[in-house]
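Saturday, quiet lab. Running sequence design on the C-alpha cells for the scaffold JK sent over.
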C-alpha cells in the first residue's frame, strides 16, 4: 500500500510540474500526462483535475508577473514572448476584453494572453478567477471525455 501511495504522489508531482511548465512558455504537455495517468489508473480523477489546474494556474501567474513587471523589456531577445504573439494577444484583449482570459488554455495564444493581462494591469483576483475557470473547465472536459470514451 505504501508503494502505491508513493507512486501516486509521484504521479501528482509529475502532473503538477507538467501543468506548470505547460502554462509558461516552457514546453510541456499536461493533457498527455493527465491522460496517461488516467489510463494507468494512477490517482483519483478529481484530484488529478485539481492538481493539473493548480499547476496550470500558477504557471499562468508567472506569465502575468512577466507581463506586469517586465513588459517594458518585451523587445529584448530574452523576453519569452515574441512580438507577433504579444500583438495577437493584445488584439484579442482589445476585441474581447478581460473575458478573453477564459481562453488562456488555448495553445499558442493562451500564454501570451496571460502575459498581456499582466502588462495591461488586469487585477490579480479577476485574473485568477477567469484563468482558473477556463483551465479547470478544460481539464474537467478531458477527464469527462476520457471516462465517457472508456465507459467509466
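Result came back. Writing it out in full:
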Amino acid at each position: 500500500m505504501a508503494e502505491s501511495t508513493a507512486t501516486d504522489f509521484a504521479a501528482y508531482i509529475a502532473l503538477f510540474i507538467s501543468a506548470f511548465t505547460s502554462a509558461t512558455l516552457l514546453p510541456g504537455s499536461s493533457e498527455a500526462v493527465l491522460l496517461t495517468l488516467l489510463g494507468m489508473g494512477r490517482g483519483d480523477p478529481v484530484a488529478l483535475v485539481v492538481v493539473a489546474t493548480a499547476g496550470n494556474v500558477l504557471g499562468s501567474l508567472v506569465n502575468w508577473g512577466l507581463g506586469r513587471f517586465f513588459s517594458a523589456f518585451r523587445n529584448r531577445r530574452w523576453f519569452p514572448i515574441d512580438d507577433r504573439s504579444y500583438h495577437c494577444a493584445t488584439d484579442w484583449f482589445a476585441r474581447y476584453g478581460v473575458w478573453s482570459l477564459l481562453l488562456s488554455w488555448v495553445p499558442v495564444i493562451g500564454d501570451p494572453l496571460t502575459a498581456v493581462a499582466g502588462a495591461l494591469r488586469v487585477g490579480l483576483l479577476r485574473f485568477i478567477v477567469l484563468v482558473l475557470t477556463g483551465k479547470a473547465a478544460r481539464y474537467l472536459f478531458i477527464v469527462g471525455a476520457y471516462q465517457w470514451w472508456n465507459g467509466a
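Notes for JK: The mean pLDDT is 88. Residues 2-149 form one domain. Ask whether to fix the surface positions before the next round.
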